[in-house]
Request: fold
Amino acid sequence: MKELLAKIKIQALEEIGKAQNQDKLYQTQVKYLGRKGELTLIMHGLKDLSPEEKPAAGKMCNEIKVAMEAAFDQKRDQLSASEINSKLNDAWIDVTAPGTPYKTGHIHPLSQVQQEVENIFSAMGFAIMDGPEVESEYFNFESLNVPSWHPARDMQDTFFVNQEADKKHGKLVLRTQTSPVQIRTMQKYGAPLRIIVPGRVFRNEATDARHEHTFNQVEGLLIDKDISLAHLKGVMEEFLTRLFGKPTKIRFRPGYFPFVEPGLEMDMSCLLCGEKGCRVCKHTGWLEFMGAGMVHPNVLKAGGIDPKQYQGWAFGFGLTRLVMMRYGIDDIRLLHGGNLRFLEQF
Ligand code: FA5
Reply:
């Protein structure tokens, strides 16, 4: 019995040592310690031994069982550690490889230039104002000295919303210009005033390289005592010179807008050719820039300001066209086209 047990022990420990994986190890465990395992069967047979043999054989069986179990545990831990290692080796990571860069967005060129415009005017003491894009006919036209019968209503093709604003203010429209914010601000804050209004406007127009149905304007309004067009000239020359980073000249021509009197168009010197004449300025040395003029007394009255005490000027330019000039973009439709290959250049 003693030799048999010693032999089983040596054999079992050898097989445990040789097991290559958990499956083999499990099979070896079943072979010796399972319900019908070799050691288990011997232990079941102990009851048939003589009383003299029984204690020593029982003790030896227990010692061998404990030794085998310890060997199984140790081998199991060893195998699982090496399995983890080999898995890690298969999933090898090169920590020195360059990472995949995240795509971050950036500010749209229209917003970039709008921020610059706001900064320059803020530095000159102008407040930045905002107003509704869905406007009433009253604020978009009537209060700006354009009654419903006035032919000037046809100057801006309007998108109408099929709903009344209220009895007093007429139908709702998508605002065709940022000028209604002039009236809203006068009514709210009174005189004196110094504001600019950057914002989106809408016109029912066929689109081409220079026209969009949705574009951005910047309105300007200055109301105070003893204000003249000389102030407008000074402010605009300073603004354009700061924006383009080189001395820029302006000139006035007569123009017509019902909400200003006198009305004028303002041109800026062509920065591409330095006034020598090129294709962009149609060989004149000047570029059309904006409409402007002295605020009409009827507009001041609609804003609740006494035209005998205060006067001022207003202007409105296309921010979209300014962006095109700034970056040499020759088709306005690219700006809202959503083409990332185009936008990522700015
Ligand atoms: C006006 O909208 C007046 N409210 C400007 C004004 C304000 C005059 C205050 C006097 C006092 P006008 O319709 O010309 O004016 O438009 C102003 C600018 O918007 C134009 O010079 C042009 O740069 C731009 N613009 C007009 N229509 C379009 C269009 N369809 N697409 C892109 N830009 C446009």
